[in-house]
Amino acid sequence: MKEESQPIAADALQIPISxxxxxxxxxxxxxxxxxxxxxxxxxxxxxxxxxxxxFGLEIDAPGQNVFVRGLTGTGRTTTLEHLLxxxxxxxxxxxxxxxxxxxxxxxxxxxxxVPRGKGTLLARRLEKFVEFVKAQxxxxxxxxxxxxxxxxxxDATQKSIVELGKPFEEELRANDLALVPVxxxxxxxxxxxxxxxGEPVPMDRFEELLAQGTVDAQQAEAVHKKISExxxxxxxxxxxIRDVQQHHSDALRSLxxxxxxxxxxxxxxxxxxxxxxxxxxxxxRNVVDDLVTHRLQMLGEDLEFTRxxxxxxxxxxxxxxxxxxxxxxxxxxxxxxxxxDRELSATGSFRxxxxxxxxxxxxxxxxxxxxxxxxxxxxxxxxxxxxMRALKTGELEIAPSxxxxxxxxxxxxxxxxxxxxxxxxxxxxxLYQLLDQNDPDxxxxxxVLADFETTIPRDQTGVHYYGGVLAxxxxxxxxxxxxxxxxxxxxxxxxxxxxxxxxxxxxxxxLADIAREAxxxxxxxxxxxxxRSHVYQAIARGRRRADLPARRYRKLITEGTIRIQTQGxxxxxxxxxxxIQAGPLTYGFPTRITASIGPGTAGAVDIEREAExxxxxxxxxxxxxxxxxxNLLKTDHPLAFSASIAFEQSYGGIDGDSASGAEMVCLLSxxxxxxxxxxxxxxxxxxxxxHIQPIGAVSEKVEGFYEVCREVGLTxxxxxxxxxxxxxxxxxxxxxxxxxxxxxxxxxxxDTLQQALQLFTGWTPGIFDENEQYPxxxxxxxxxxxxxxxxxxxxxxx
Length: 798
What we know:
The protein is an alpha/beta fold and 798 residues long. Helix content is 46%, strand content 17%.
């Protein structure tokens, strides 16, 4: 690694005041207040995303569903809504879908597909049909004509029975026998009995006469013999009579069925004329067949069976309906697929039928667009699984066979519905990556990615956009206009949120919240315009509401409960910097890092990792230290020392590599026994070559250490060391800017570990010359000699 030929003075590493906070150029604003501006319509700085969205909305091809990727507040939802309204993408003309009773399998309702605009009409026609069945069919079957024809059938049948029975009865009488009805239990049955003195006598009475002697035994035996012979012949006659009666019954059935079909024909013809579809006509035939074959005898009684003849138009739209755009904000499984009602029957069991089926968001969006928040779908049990299945198969199953995993099991399983819908998922980058890695169907089904930028260039055009956005907000929500300094303050805060050199944030949702609160402050003060002071107050108020954990942390430091030194020197101890999140806000705070070292062979040990408190990125950053030590010291012997590094008084998980630079400085201090300044804190990642690399939330980290120093007392020497590549990202708050301008706090930028060592130790780092030596008296020469001493101690012990 090539180092500086001469040590760099600390003043040369200090960042100039002008670079600690970007100031909006006033000349870029060509207006006095936002009332003079034309409100910006649409979304700012998202041309690529809008182009991708337009393509995704307009193309009609398999798998061209859309994932809208971006942080909340970047305008992704607003843009989508505007595009769906403005572009009016072409949509296929989808049919109406209806469910009807399945007469062959009642638990499997059938799907009827009819032209758009006719689903409701079909349902109304069947309602009128059912009304006729309930109110008019029974009277029609009891008309004078039908009664007359039934009388004719009854008379003919009676005549046939008489003709069959008359010869038999005459022969019986000729043999002193008669055929009389006899009550046997609940049944009246024709029975052959003897005649005594011309009168029929039941068999039990006849036996009494025999016992009394009125009838002698010979006569009784003759009677019994005749009755037995005639009984066999009577069985044959009875069968013939039953045949006549069955013929009569069949004739009556045919009469009523024919009359019912004739009465129903008028209504059925009207429906068939408007619905020539074979499926509809098949259903109508099934309805008529079921009614005339099985239900005529139930007319005038319980007419619950007529539910089977009604139509459930589960998806019915007007013929001129616009392209459906459905935004489902609660994508539960039932809200997506649809649901099937249940009711408790009189028997105490649950029942469902085709009329209890209801459409979900997927079906309502058929032929159009369904907009969903990806995280919301994933949070609902089963929703993601069945959504992906529907998109993959192109069919919607309202009650899939495995739905019992989430409900208690469907009582009916409707026929699947062909589905043609484009789903638009909204989510962030992390969620997109998660789905892409874990769901093999995701990349196949969501081929269009609309990426929303989180920043725009920090130039005059970007500042002008900010003014236009504030003008629109004031117009739409009846807020006060912003004056020029107010817009400048909002733009500067946009630069702070962006956290990148020469960039402004596009998270206008977050900025809008600040603008609303600034308007609130201005109104409370009786101002006519929102100005810079109101914006500053709004920002401070928002931070104050959310920074209770940070205030508590600073209080623990001032009380000495958490040990953080902000002055003096200490060996093997350094102030690192970390951040915590509180909603959309980020807060920085110092954390004490310590190291210990001695002869041994264990190498460097990360206590956080051993305690399973270290995240993968932090662990990676720590392992880099070993490679850097070998590259930095360039020893001709193995490194023979054991070292441990810890974040003191840290009881939660630690992740990120922004403390790896501070860890290396702390480790070298432990190796050399050279004390480190405690009035400095450091943030920055490090590589194996000793370069200090950029990190995030640099402004918040600087402010976090400053606030602790302010609480315990400013000395005028305190400051923060940051990577030079982060210098352009700084947007320190106005309070800290004034303190730095007064020379009471300092911000240093370094490129290399050697520069950081110089700041913390005051030692010259040293240059590794062509003889593979560091100049005597330099920090790295001392580190190299200490490393050799440890190796010699270990070698002697062996």
